[in-house]
Structure formats: structure tokens, C-alpha cells
Specification:
30% of the residues lie in helices and 22% in strands. It contains five helices and ten strands; from the N terminus they run αααβαβββββββαββ.
Length: 183
């Protein structure tokens, strides 16, 4: 067990970046399986309004999820970090420009059309690691998803690469669990 989340985050970012650098084919194969399991799930099939992030290279790819959602006629919303340390989700289409912003260099939508938390059917939650017992996630340290997930009643899911499991870290009182994990 890591003594601090900071040490666990550093370890996981290095671990995931090494996966991308050394074993891109392994990562791509795992992602394909995760996507297939997601698309076969009842919570995906029932969702009309899907929220997620535009993934960084070392995260589970979300572009195939976005494309599939559009093909199925679902509404897609990408995360945008707000000034008050909150997270909003903005409607995106194939024509919505994305801009790189923030200290992490996240790609965010330029769209001004937001959706209320209670109108989302499914949120695909990013993380550096997931705990399969508690369903807690190790995020990037801003608490954006913990604040968002607090009192969110729709389905939340984490897509878990092999390198994102088998790790323990301190869980704080404000940390929010994800409803479903797909591995």
C-alpha cells in the first residue's frame, strides 16, 4: 500500500506511460476488449446521454467510445474543468472544436451547451487506478470527479487496464466510488 495518494499517482502515471511506450499493441488489445464489454453492457445500451473525457495517451482510449455513441445516435458530452474547481459536461458533435487547456493539457470542448447532472445516463470515469473491492478510483488529485459523483444517481463506470489494478492507496472520506468496473 502506498502511504500517500501522491506517491501512488506518480507510480501509476509512470506505469501507464511505460505501457504505452513499451507495449502499445497490448494496450490497444486490452482497450478493444474493454470497449466491447462496455458496448455490450445494459447501462451502455440504455444510455442516451453519455459523459466522458477526451483521454490522454496513457489512459483508456475514449475516441472509439465517442464514435460508437454517435453511430448509435447517443448524445455525447465531454468534461470541461470550470473555474470553481467543478466539472461540467458539454455537448459535442463531430464538428465541435476541442482546445487544449489546463495544467494537464486536457482536450476540452468549445461548446457552451451543458447538461444537468441528473440528465446524464452514463458517466465514464477516468482514473490512474481502480480498487476492485471498494470501486474507489485514484484520480489526478483535483477532486473534480469526486465532487461530480457526489449525489450523482446515474450509472458510472471505470474501464480498467491490467496496469490500473492491484494497487492500494489511502482513501479519504470525500472519495467517491464508481458504480461499475469493467476489466
Amino acid at each position: 500500500m502506498f502511504k500517500s495518494k501522491g506517491l501512488a499517482r506518480q507510480h501509476q502515471q509512470n506505469r501507464l506511460k511505460k505501457l504505452v511506450a513499451d507495449h502499445p499493441d497490448k494496450k490497444a488489445a486490452e482497450e478493444k476488449q474493454l470497449h466491447q464489454k462496455l458496448f455490450a453492457s445494459s447501462f451502455w445500451q440504455q444510455a442516451n446521454h453519455v459523459a466522458l473525457t477526451h483521454a490522454m495517451a496513457f489512459e483508456v482510449a475514449t475516441e472509439p467510445i465517442i464514435q460508437r455513441a454517435w453511430q448509435e445516435g447517443k448524445f455525447v458530452y465531454l468534461a470541461k474543468v470550470e473555474a470553481n474547481r467543478a466539472l461540467s459536461f458539454r455537448l459535442v458533435t463531430e464538428k465541435t472544436p476541442l482546445v487544449q487547456s489546463g495544467k494537464l493539457g486536457l482536450w476540452e470542448p468549445t461548446s457552451e451547451v451543458t447538461i444537468a447532472k441528473d440528465s446524464l445516463d452514463l458517466v465514464i470515469v477516468p482514473a490512474l487506478a481502480f480498487d476492485f473491492v471498494s470501486h474507489h478510483r485514484l484520480g489526478f488529485g483535483g477532486g473534480y470527479y469526486d465532487r461530480f459523483l457526489f449525489e450523482y444517481e446515474g450509472a458510472s463506470v471505470g474501464l480498467v487496464l491490467e496496469e490500473q489494478s492491484g494497487l492500494t492507496w489511502p482513501v479519504d472520506q470525500h472519495d467517491q466510488a464508481v458504480q461499475y468496473l469493467i476489466k
